[in-house]
Amino acid sequence: MDLITKKIRVLLFIISIFISTTVFGEQVKGSILNELELSENKDTLLKYNGNHHILDLSKYDELSNVKVIGRKAFAHNHKLRDVILPHKVQIIGNGAFEGCEKLTRIYMPDCVEHIEAGAFWECSMLKIDELPKELKTIGENAFVKCRNLSITEIPNEVTTVGIRAFAYCDNITSIKLPVTLENIPRLIFFKCVNLKNVDISENVKYIGHNAFYGCENLRTLFLPRDSCEIEGNPFAKCSRLKKIHISANTIATAFHGIYGTEILNLNSNSFINY
Fold it and tell me: Which of 56, 243, 261, 265 fits a disulfide with 84 by CB distance 3.0 to 4.6 angstroms?
């Protein structure tokens, strides 16, 4: 076989690979798009009906106007592992990824402003170490039982966090709350058993009942605000909480359920009986 013939065969092989890859790529694209249900104006992804392990939704022009991931759009999909959301998504709806037990990674654009109630409920394998920078609200139960969640701060644009938002998030060890958050809701870090440090802004006005219940490794707590209302028993079963500095705050009830506390500074506080 002469050199020219060999070169021709190699070239034909490369061309055939290119054609097959392109055709296959188009088939995959068509398959994924056919498995998606969009709203009439194409700004809301209503439902995903496929079984792919990996979804990169950012690369399709047909999804370039999607701003909302709809209610339960991906809920209880037991195949999904990795998802890249479209670039313009602003809202992740109620229960959007609820029960996606194998979901390991999700790439959210920084323009996401709202993560609604139960959006990632029981995504037990989900690994997130940073939330979108423009995030403003986190709904109740948003990350319940996301046991691999490892965020260290809530973005500074966040003004509202719902009850139980991070309950049972075992992998959170330290958390910084934003200066924009004035109310720490009930049960927000319920049984985050490895949480050791909490940085609470001086702008906090209210801490709800059982907010840190069962955070058995929480060690030190400092509340600098002069008028922070502490409702009920936010720190019950925080068995290793050694130092509490709570100066000039309004305390609804005493710290029932805190064991082994070495320092409890309650200077200039007001107690309210319920």
Answer: 56
Q: For the chain, where are the E strands, in sequence order?
A: 36-38, 44-48, 54-56, 68-69, 82-84, 91-92, 105-107, 114-115, 137-138, 160-161, 174-176, 183-184, 197-199, 206-207, 220-223, 229-230, 243-246, 250-251, 263-265, 270-271
Distance CA 48, CA 32 (A): 9
Contacts of 225 (CB under 8 A, 6+ apart): 202, 203, 204, 205, 249
DSSP state of 153: B
pTM of the model: 0.83
- Mean pLDDT, consecutive 10-residue segments, the chain of 274 residues? 58 52 45 92 97 94 96 97 97 98 96 98 96 98 97 97 98 95 97 94 91 93 72 90 68 53 53 46
Alpha-carbon gap, residue 27 to 75, rounded angstroms: 25
d(CA 55, CA 58): 9
Angle at 42 between CA 39 and CA 46, to 5 degrees: 40
The identity of residue 17, as a single letter, is I
- The tokens for 56 are 């990169």
Q: Is 236 left (phi over 0), alpha (psi -120 to 50) or beta?
A: beta
**Domain ranges, ordered by start, for the chain:** 1-34
Q: Could you give the CA distance from residue 128 to residue 104 in angstroms, rounded to a whole number?
A: 9
Distances (CA, A) of 85 to 23, 64, 137, 206: 24, 10, 18, 35
pLDDT, residue 273, reads 47
Cβ distance 131 to 155 under 8 Å? yes
Q: What is the DSSP string of 98-109?
A: TT-TT--EEE--
pLDDT at position 259: 52
The structure tokens listed for 247 are 């100066």
